Amino acid sequence: MSEKLNTLRAGVLGSNDGILTVVGVLFSVAVATPNIFTIFIAGLSDLLACAFSMASGEYASVSSQRDAESSAVANEQVLLKNNIDEEIESVKEYYMSRGISEETSTEIARELLNKKPLETVVNTKYGIQLGHYMNPWHAAFSSLISAAAGGVFPLLAMSLIPGVYRWPGTIGAVVLSVALTGYLSAKLGDGLVKTAVVRNIVIGILTMIIHYTLGKLMNQF
């Protein structure tokens, strides 16, 4: 479940980044040129770059975390062989910090280390569930697909909506998209839905304003 939630989290964040990154390029380029083909190619290039960048970053991040967890487990295996008293003390302190008496904590620590020594110490010290390591490929693939999917909405809106409806249609597509990612991120993280949605919409609007302004300024030179 933990791995699935982290994969979903990576997907939601990737989708949000895809939306904002692509819309930034689209607005900057669309202000500078009315050529739809040029706008589309610029947006598509940025969408692909963003998707692969998010995927590689997520892969590196999760791989580093997995390596750190594996290293911690290997270190605890050595400590269990060479310094079992220190490990008992560590587990005892863990339970004492949760309000259990010293005597009872000692009994719990000894019993757990007799039954499942490695599982107990890595869980109490690092919060690691032995054998349940995140898969970097799952997180990377989730980010790749979601970033591309997120960027598609503003790209298609800007490219396909005709005439005077192009700008308001694109703005509407961006607002709806970032509102959806805000809603999903709040649900997955047990956060405040309204706050997350409003925050994402504000960020989306600011992103559009900033890149529209930059495009206007660049167009004057």
Q: How confident is the prediction overall: mean pLDDT?
A: 84
Largest sheet: none
User: What is the number of strand segments?
Assistant: 0
> How would you classify the helix and strand content by structural class?
mainly alpha
Rg estimate, integer Å: 25 Å
Protein name: VIT family protein
Transmembrane segments: 20-44, 139-161, 167-184, 196-214
InterPro entries: Ccc1_fam
Subcellular location: Endomembrane system
How would you describe the overall organization of this protein?
Helix content is 86%, strand content 0%. The protein is built from 8 helices and no strands. Helix 1 (2-32) runs antiparallel to helix 2 and helix 7 (166-189) runs antiparallel to helix 8 (193-219). The termini are far apart.
List the helices and strands and how they pair.
Blueprint: H1 2-32, H2 36-82, H3 84-96, H4 102-115, H5 117-126, H6 136-160, H7 166-189, H8 193-219
Helix pairs in contact: 1-2, 1-6, 1-7, 1-8, 2-5, 2-6, 3-4, 3-5, 4-5, 6-7, 7-8
Transmembrane segments: 20-44, 139-161, 167-184, 196-214
Protein name: VIT family protein
InterPro entries: Ccc1_fam
Keywords:
elongated, 221 residues, mainly alpha
Would you kindly provide a brief summary of this structure?
The protein has 221 residues and is an all-alpha fold.
